[in-house]
Design brief:
With 105 residues, this protein is mainly beta. It is 10% helix and 46% strand. The protein has one helix spanning 8-18, and strands spanning 20-27, 36-43, 47-54, 59-62, 68-73, 80-87, 92-97. The strands form two sheets. The chain has a four-stranded antiparallel β-sheet with strand order 4-3-6-7, with no helix packed on it. A three-stranded antiparallel β-sheet has the order 1-2-5.
């Protein structure tokens, strides 16, 4: 029988090559507004730090706990635009550029 689900260990093993999987979600009071943006993800075991690059130009350090991270912003200047994963030596292990907020025009 085929299943759309992948065993968790198989997924975590695949992160050893990819290093970073990112998921994002936008929310707003109406379908044409984005009032908040969340980015979450899982990382390989050798990723020790995540930086979130913000739309306003700043950067936020986000804790990695059990190979996962989460960041939520409710101000457009603090909306995440990129996720940067670092290994223990401080070298960039992976990056992910996020799409613009999803509210229609």
């Amino acid at each position: 029988m085929l299943s759309p689900f992948v065993p968790l260990q198989q997924f975590l093993d695949s992160l050893q090559t990819r290093k970073l999987d990112v998921f994002s979600a936008d929310a707003g009071a109406t379908v044409s507004t984005v009032d908040s943006r969340e980015v979450a993800g899982v990382v390989s075991s050798d990723v020790s730090r995540i930086d979130i690059v913000l739309e306003g130009g700043g950067t936020v350090k986000v804790a990695v706990v059990d190979q996962a991270f989460d960041y939520t912003a409710v101000c457009p200047a603090a909306f995440p635009t990129m996720v940067i994963a670092y290994d223990a030596t401080g070298a960039i292990a992976a990056t992910n550029t996020l799409l613009a907020p999803s509210a229609p025009g």
